[in-house]
TrEMBL record:
Alphabetical keyword list: Cytoplasm, Glycosyltransferase, Purine salvage, Transferase
Protein name: Phosphoribosyltransferase family protein
Family membership noted in the UniProt record: Belongs to the purine/pyrimidine phosphoribosyltransferase family.
Pfam families: Pribosyltran
Top-level taxon in the UniProt lineage: Bacteria
Known pathway: Purine metabolism
Length: 145
């Protein structure tokens, strides 16, 4: 029951009428796909250490700032999956440093698309300014767990 309600709940956090949901691997792919299905729009998986499947695939890639484990991750997706004019909502399970969301935003902008914001299940941001800058909306604040 809860899983069925998760996608609609995350999709309802924004009024920006997204055309694409972007979900970082691995749990962001699950909740992102649920959200995209609930909204009736497309889904793009943002992969770590993404490599081109063929020479004809054009990818956009970016490296994150340090994450919660002080790692720098390389994320990307096929360039033709996000187009200029798309309105993109990133969905993930948890946000801590905001490194993945900031990288997702840069990738979306590299494609000429419009970033709507980040929606997540749990907000554990260590820098509260990012809630406004991203913007971020969540279902649960870490301090309520």
């Amino acid at each position: 029951m809860l899983l069925r309600e998760l996608g609609p709940a995350l999709g309802a956090l924004y009024d920006g009428a997204p055309t694409v949901v972007l979900g970082p691997v691995s749990r962001g792919s699950l909740v992102g796909a649920l959200t995209a299905a609930a909204l009736g729009i497309g889904f793009v998986e943002m992969r770590k250490d993404a490599t081109q499947a063929t020479d004809s695939d054009r990818w956009v890639r970016r490296t994150t700032a340090p994450d919660y484990r002080d790692r720098h991750e390389v994320f990307g997706f096929r360039r033709d999956l996000v187009r200029a004019g798309d309105r993109v909502l990133m969905v993930d399970d948890w946000i801590d440093t905001g490194a993945t969301a900031r990288t997702a935003r840069a990738l979306v902008e590299d494609c000429g698309a419009r970033w709507i914001g980040a929606a997540c299940i749990v907000d554990g941001l260590t820098d509260p300014r990012l809630r406004h800058d991203l913007p971020l909306r969540s279902l649960i604040d870490i301090h309520r767990l």
